[in-house]
User: What shape does this take?
Amino acid sequence: MVEIFKGGIPVIETLERWYEECKLEGYGAMIPFIGIVRPDNGIEGLSFDLYLPMLNEWFKKWQNLKEAKIMMAHSFGDVMVGETSFLCAVFTKHRREGFKYLEEFVEDFKANAPIWKYDLINGKRIFAKDRAKKLPGAGILN
Amino acid sequence: MVEIFKGGIPVIETLERWYEECKLEGYGAMIPFIGIVRPDNGIEGLSFDLYLPMLNEWFKKWQNLKEAKIMMAHSFGDVMVGETSFLCAVFTKHRREGFKYLEEFVEDFKANAPIWKYDLINGKRIFAKDRAKKLPGAGILN
Amino acid sequence: MVKVEFLGPIGKKPVEVEAGSLKELKEILNKDDSLKPWLENSAVAVNDKIVQDLDVELKNGDRVVILPPVCGG
Amino acid sequence: MVKVEFLGPIGKKPVEVEAGSLKELKEILNKDDSLKPWLENSAVAVNDKIVQDLDVELKNGDRVVILPPVCGG
Assistant: This one.
């Protein structure tokens, strides 16, 4: 299951929990990815909607890997500049599989996870259309 | 400068310090790498020697990147199974440079950082010769 | 009846419609001009599975969700 | 005099030798049989800079380190 937080993710305590949980399971590499909200275009922050049933369904295929374990957390609602909205960690025996899985996982996440991002400007949510990606089959009802 | 710890690295507090230090500097991605000692070949742990003057010199070229900031910590002495002996984190604006720099950095580290690894078996240090890599120019005095 | 939900930025309340297939649903939804820009780039899931063509029958109680372009992280 | 240090697993104390070049130092070190297996696969740094050929002069006070194969992490 994806761990969901209202607002910014408590990065350090989540990483600590994952690290403590997995450090004695024989993994030699833990590679987290921490997605921090940048102060771009004068935004105050970002805001997120997510559709949990399909997010968890999407994540399932990343939970049955033979040689890697993947943990993930995401925010919903408002996340201010400097806070973290996306956190994951890949555990593998050796580093090279870790690099590979992290990149594949994050790219798949960006392309397919049912999450919608908004810029927060003057307290208003503006859909980040320019950064959004169509899902497979997009436009069939058009 | 490389941060050096006697024994296992305090992973979580080091990550917290780096995260807090850099999260408002406009980086959108923080990608750490955590090298955990695995219970391979019945070892109790690993042990490390390092040569600090050349380690810091080697690290310098990774501290003047235009588009990335890299932090690093390493242990010396004994590090038990489940503890962490190598920790680094790459900060970049966007994720893709982050993946690239992390991999390049870690591979360069493995090939060139002046650090020697020993298996700890029955309390004895046994040089991990099979996993060690020759440095440039190796053998010229032979 | 089929329940249709509009996710994320579409900002429209769910509706219940009579539609025996995705083709019928397409006709119904296209009557709403405010939806048209979204239908151009949105994907469709039936009972939380993405479908990629219109040859899908709908039965009473099915749930359809309209998913605009995504951007997590 | 040139100071020579043996790093990591070589486990030999530093020595001070008279050597005007790496070539001379090579001859001196090769007299020590216990060092030979290490010299085969070790790199050499003069004043903490790795050198890749033997055409290097040494002067009084230079520091040479012998670096066996590495494996951090």
Summary: The two ends of chain A are 33 Å apart (CA to CA). Chain A touches chain D at residues 95 (CB under 8 Å). The first helix of chain A runs from residue 11 to 22.
